[in-house]
Amino acid sequence: LLLILVISFYLTIQTVRIETGRQTSIAELHKSEKIHRSFIENAPIGMYTLNLKGEFTYINKKLESITGYKKEDWLNKSFVPLVHPEDLALVKEKIRLRFEGKGRPDPYEIRIFNKKNQVVWIRIIAKSIFDSKQHPQVLTGIQTFVEDITNQKDVMASLKVSEGRLKTILAANPDPIVVYDLDGHPEYLSPAFTSV
């Protein structure tokens, strides 16, 4: 009887140790999940996921900031209304290739509409999401990283306009003009210079 009590006591202690360890592991897992969720949610780059129907399944805060929309506005809805009509064929092709397993991680640039119906230029990098528990792996969606490049596009457009004006001024100037690069090589010869 004493042996049975000792074994029972020993097994009870072991069970308590195992349960305590399990509870600690669960608490650490929840803490880790919370940290990772916060990291993604507050990332300085927009992130979203699409399911195989092309519907949003996740949108982080940065993407909300870029578009002006809230998660609730787009979850379980198609991406199509957001994309500028001139860029829609490109986006559909990229998604089709990704769903067929032929997608490349190369970034590409498109225009979307924000909540105020303004055009926003974005750079996209997409990656396939697979269910790694299944063999062979099964594609379940797409994760996408988004950078707002509207300001860069605006600056480039302004530079082109400014460059065009400068070329017009230089071409109209009756004096010969040469513009050199930093190595002393001529970059530009005005029409007046070439006629001398």
Question: What would you note in describing this structure?
Answer:
47% of the residues lie in helices and 23% in strands. The chain is α+β, with helices and mostly antiparallel strands. The strands form two sheets. Strands 2-1-5-4-3 form a five-stranded antiparallel β-sheet. A two-stranded antiparallel ribbon has the order 6-7. A hairpin with a 5-residue loop joins β1 (46-50) and β2 (56-59). The radius of gyration is 29 Å and the shape is elongated. The model has no long low-confidence stretch (mean pLDDT 88).
Kindly report the spatial arrangement of strands forming the biggest sheet. Answer: 2-1-5-4-3
Gyration radius over CA: 29 Å
Number of strands: 7
Please write the string of helix (H) and strand (E) elements: HEEHHHEEEHEEH
Helix content: 40-55%
**Backbone shape:** elongated
> Strand fraction band?
15-25%
Instruction: Give the structural class.
Output: alpha+beta
How does the major sheet shape up?
5 strands, antiparallel
Q: If you average the pLDDT, what whole number results?
A: 88
Q: How would you briefly describe this protein structure?
A:
This protein has helices at 2-41, 61-67, 71-74, 85-99, 150-172, 191-194, and strands spanning 46-50, 56-59, 108-113, 119-131, 138-148, 178-180, 186-189. It has 196 residues and is an alpha+beta fold. The N and C termini lie far apart (119 Å).
What features would you highlight for this structure?
alpha+beta; elongated; 47% helix; five-stranded antiparallel β-sheet; two-stranded antiparallel ribbon
